[in-house]
Specification:
The protein is an alpha+beta fold. The chain contains 17 helices and 46 strands. Strands 3-2-4-9-6-7 form a 6-stranded antiparallel sheet. It has a 6-stranded parallel sheet with strand order 29-28-27-26-25-32. A 4-stranded antiparallel sheet has the order 1-12-5-8, with no helix packed on it. The protein is globular and about 90 Å long.
């Protein structure tokens, strides 16, 4: 979607008329930076002279571009680079301005993002002091600019160096998230609580600690004369199949009172169009004006899988005395969104309803794409969104410990039909209760909601991640309550309720009332305890964090599971991007450095689950492979359990889709957008139609799960195989798969399925057939993989060009469990991977990406579960 700036070209032509359109001049090139004078960094005296800088950017990325530091993601370089975030830095830009520019009525300097504590001066005059990474800063500079040369300086203070001396003098420290592993902050003394900066940059259990400083978003001059269009918004008063009742809203700043003409032209996806205009009288100062727009039989925006994500283009103009003084274009989708919460036999529902259709949310949590946000291009963001769509996801939760993404991200989600659950940027730490902090947060929220509210992909604004449940239940919060007096505990509690229950709710209600607000994730929206099974959304971490068996996923059926997860390592090609051959052991210094859970001990947690389910890996590549098999099959069990429980459960968002760096994590797509086994499994378990066998205590209940909006007739085919290749039995039974439902297709016990066959050597294939063709397929085993007598499958591969591209055929003589096809370092993607093959079965797999057939033939390797274990349990 094309989204033009409210400002157009920067007008420098002499003699521009007073009604000239607003202008814009980009100030992103020509910057220099240096280590600030007075900074104690004797080992880096070579950085005290001015060096070329990139804006947008960060000090770390500037140093990397100049080869003054090593790759922050290579091996254990992280520890040696912490000094950067503890130092102060200066940025400078020299630029020229001519007389024509100064002839405009107004010239504003606009920073879209400063990270974070910054003092800005222009030609030696202090303009601005900032304290919030997430805010836009605008300051008038017409009277400060000089004709000819000008100098703009930005002095950046380390947030840790600035706040830690103050914090050490306080009677207590608010509970935060993860203590620094590098000793720059004492244990339990986390400064990140007290500053509006991306929490994850202080280190998380899936990413490194890189506390950035810099001009991280664009900077520009905006010029205008007497009237400025500050914002244009399409408010969706009511949208249904028959009519869209809209209001085009204009926020205008005027130097004087007088009439202007407001005009709006709209174009529908099918090319139809309309026009509205009206004259309004502006008062001097701030003005809010509106123009009604009605569209009959709108082409509505739908989430992926339910219809087209249709977008309308709106062109707005403001004119005075017959001349255009401002114009803007934007695209948006017309749709209604409801968060339905109704009492039912299981408590109270939690379901997203779009255009009147209840949607089972299928997706994952999204974290930032990089430790250094300015490195993320629109193309890279869209590629990850396409990975989500290709895996049949319809929702991503933008987790609250990162950053609000650029407009390009949400524009891509709009086009792809992916719903966005948007957290405000609070990652779990307890927030200060002082009015200044809350006001800073309020202004941030106003700016972000105003910027993003026309994106139809945003279907929820959530106040924070895990603040309420942490405050209520986490041990360090309980210790804090005991340490601090009761009156202070009450003030902290009331401060959070004020911020998340009232302040942010009011911002959303005032500026984007058509999108629901949710106080915290997980929560019941301050209507009761957080993280309960019967109401609200739920985060389930007893599996993994609590070391409980994967089978315990079946014990919980929350109304909407917005977090749960299992870890794995990325593929070997990604591991080789950060490690050397000598590092290839789970407990090596480098592997521990790239395993952030439990300060590196997470690799032992991985081995715990691998051993429980599969057995002992025979080498490091097998450990990596088995970690992915365990993650994929575990999350599949949980996700399909949730889908089978519809409508009791209406959402599955596993933790997490992506990574900020290459390493071990809960991601299903790694830092380089390489799919792990989980992502391939998600493509199947999030498919619009699924057949789900759930086995408990010797009985299997089978469900036909459908996201289709109409019923369909199907046949459930059940085939029982000996793993060596013999078909023991086949049955077929008709069923009607209900729309938007999970239909019980029957229950059968082990004895009926096996009829005396050895459960260790038997597999059951369930297929949902529609008009004789498989609509869904699922295999069932009688126990954990380590208890099965899995045969050597006799895998073979062949590669051919079918005229449309390369096709890889994989065949198995006997049952092949957890087949994985590896293509080494080649930049290709397989249409499918990480699957089981029945005895005698073959599968054709399309290869996506440009690659020579001989190079691919040389690179391809294929393995199954029995190849990765030291020995197969009989």
């Amino acid at each position: 979607m094309r989204r033009a700036s409210l400002a157009l070209a920067f007008w420098l032509a002499a003699g521009a008329a007073s009604a000239s359109p607003p202008g814009e001049r980009d100030l992103s090139s020509g910057w220099r930076f240096r280590l600030a004078q007075g900074t104690e960094a004797d080992a880096h005296n070579d950085l005290k002279d001015w060096l070329p800088a990139q804006v947008p950017g960060a000090v770390q990325t500037d140093l990397l571009a100049l080869h003054r530091i090593g790759d922050p993601f290579w091996r254990d370089n992280e520890a040696s680079l912490q000094w950067i975030g503890l130092s102060n830095w200066d940025y400078r830009l020299d630029f020229d301005v001519d007389a024509a520019a100064l002839a405009r009525g107004h010239v504003d300097l606009v920073f879209d993002g400063l990270d974070t504590f910054a003092e800005v001066t222009l030609n030696g005059r202090k303009l601005l002091v900032t304290d919030n990474m997430f805010r836009r800063w605008r300051v008038p500079v017409r009277d400060v600019l000089h004709k000819g040369g000008n100098t703009l300086d930005v002095h950046l203070q380390s947030p840790i160096a600035r706040l830690l001396p103050w914090l050490m003098k306080q009677p207590y420290s608010l509970p935060g998230e993860f203590d620094s592993a590098f000793g720059d902050e004492p244990k339990g003394k986390q400064t990140s609580n007290y500053v509006r900066k991306a929490n994850y940059q202080y280190g998380w259990d899936w990413g490194p600690r890189y506390v950035t400083l810099g001009i991280w978003r664009p900077v520009r001059l905006e010029s205008w004369d007497t009237t400025r269009l500050a914002d244009f918004h399409i408010s969706q008063q009511h949208v249904d199949a028959d009519n869209a009742r809209l209001e085009a809203q204009f926020d205008l700043r005027a130097d004087k009172s007088g009439p202007v003409m407001l005009k709006v032209d709209w174009t529908a996806p099918d090319g139809s169009h309309g026009h509205e205009e009206r004259s309004v009288a502006l008062a001097k100062g701030e003005n809010h004006a509106s123009l009604p727009v009605d569209i009959a039989h709108p082409q509505r925006w739908w989430p992926v899988g339910y219809g087209d994500p249709s977008l309308y283009r709106f062109h707005a103009e403001v004119s005075a005395d017959g001349a255009t003084v401002a114009s803007v274009e934007k695209d948006t989708g017309l749709r209604s969104v409801e968060l339905r919460r109704e009492k039912d036999p299981w408590g109270r529902s939690f379901a997203f309803v779009v255009n009147g259709v209840p949607i089972f949310a299928k997706g994952a949590n999204l974290i930032p794409f990089d430790s250094f946000p300015s490195r993320v291009t629109p193309g890279r963001m869209e590629a990850f969104l396409r990975s989500a769509k290709d895996a049949n996801m319809n929702m991503l939760r933008m987790w609250g410990g990162g950053t609000y993404q650029d407009d390009a991200f949400y524009a891509a989600a709009d086009r792809l039909g992916i719903m966005i659950w948007q957290d405000f940027m609070y990652g779990g730490a307890i927030t200060p209760y002082d009015p200044a902090f809350r006001e800073n947060a309020r202004v941030e929220a106003v700016e972000q909601v105003t910027r993003l509210r026309d994106h139809p992909s945003i279907v929820l604004w959530a106040g924070n991640n895990e603040v309420q449940t942490g405050w209520d239940d986490w041990p360090d919060r309980q210790d804090f309550r005991k340490f601090v007096n009761a009156d202070e505990v009450k003030r902290v509690d009331e401060g959070m309720r004020e911020l998340f229950g009232k302040t942010l709710r009011k911002v959303v209600g005032d500026l984007s009332p058509q999108v629901p607000y949710w106080a915290s994730s997980p929560s019941t929206d301050y209507e009761g305890p957080a993280n309960v099974e019967s109401d609200g959304d739920y985060h389930y971490w007893k599996v993994w964090s609590g070391s409980e068996p994967i089978s315990h996923y079946l014990d919980m059926t929350p109304r909407f599971q917005s977090e749960y997860g299992l870890q794995s390592f990325p593929v070997m090609a990604t591991i080789k991007a950060f490690a050397e051959e000598g590092d290839m052991q789970p407990e090596s210094k480098v592997m521990r450095a790239h395993q952030k859970f439990a300060n590196g001990d997470g690799n032992q947690r991985l081995l715990l689950y691998i051993r429980q389910e599969y057995g002992e890996p025979k080498d490091f590549p097998s450990f990596v492979y088995l970690s992915q098999v365990m993650q994929a099959e575990g999350i599949e069990l949980a996700a399909e359990h949730l889908r089978s429980a519809r409508p009791r459960s209406m959402g599955s968002l596993y933790w997490q889709l992506n990574d900020v760096w290459p390493g071990a994590s809960w991601a299903s797509v790694d830092y380089f957008n390489r799919w792990k086994a989980l992502q391939f499994h998600a493509k199947r378990f999030y498919a619009p139609v699924d057949v789900v066998p759930i086995r408990r205590e010797g009985k299997t209940e089978v469900f036909a799960v459908s996201d289709r909006t109409t019923d369909f007739e199907a046949t459930l085919r059940t085939r029982v195989y000996d793993m060596g290749g013999k078909l023991l039995r086949e049955t077929n039974r008709p069923l009607r798969a209900a729309a938007l439902s999970s239909t019980t297709a029957g229950t059968v016990d082990d004895a009926t399925l096996l009829k005396g066959a050895d459960p260790r050597r038997t597999v059951v294939s369930f297929d949902l057939l529609e008009q004789g063709k498989p609509a869904a397929h699922h295999l069932l085993y009688f126990g954990a993989a380590r208890t099965l007598a899995l045969p050597k499958p006799g895998l073979s591969t062949s590669l051919r060009d079918d005229g449309h591209g390369l096709v890889l055929t994989v065949s198995a003589k006997r049952l092949a469990r957890a087949v994985w096809i590896d293509t080494g370092d080649l930049d290709v993607r397989l249409a499918q991977n990480a699957f089981d093959l029945l005895p005698g079965e073959s599968v054709d797999i399309a290869i996506e990406g440009k690659v020579d057939i001989d190079a691919l033939r040389h690179a391809v390797t294929v393995r199954s579960l029995v190849d990765a274990l030291k020995e197969t349990t009989p």
